[in-house]
Amino acid sequence: MLTVDDYEIIRRKHRDEGLSQREIAQQLGHSRKTIKKALELGIPPGYRLTKPRPKPTIEPYTKIIDQWFKENKTTRRKQRMTVLKMYERLLQHGCSVYQ
Q1: Which residues of the chain fall below pLDDT 70?
Q2: Which of 13, 35, 61, 71 minimizes the number of CB atoms within 10 Å of its CB?
Q3: How many CA atoms lie less than 13 Å away from 54 in the CB half-sphere?
Q4: Considering the entire predicted model, what is its pTM?
Q5: CA nearest to 7, candidates 29, 34, 31
Q6: Angle at alpha carbon of residue 44, lines to 39 and 48, rounded to 5°
């Protein structure tokens, strides 16, 4: 896996020194495909989850919350539900913060 410094070195060698992808790969010990990906990306990719994290506490209430957000989009600004009001309504629905 490449570090941020590796991305910078690869870009600098290609841009400033005019080296080809193959030459950079030989010098740094990475594959040519890796060098190509590093040059194509403007910035290094961040961490990506393989699967979403489980949300056991809030999962049963997501439909209700989504409905509240939809209603907020259509109501006037002064009458929209704040996050604090949503939290209080969740408590009324039986949502417990600490399970």
Answers
A1: 97-99
A2: 71
A3: 2
A4: 0.50
A5: 34
A6: 130
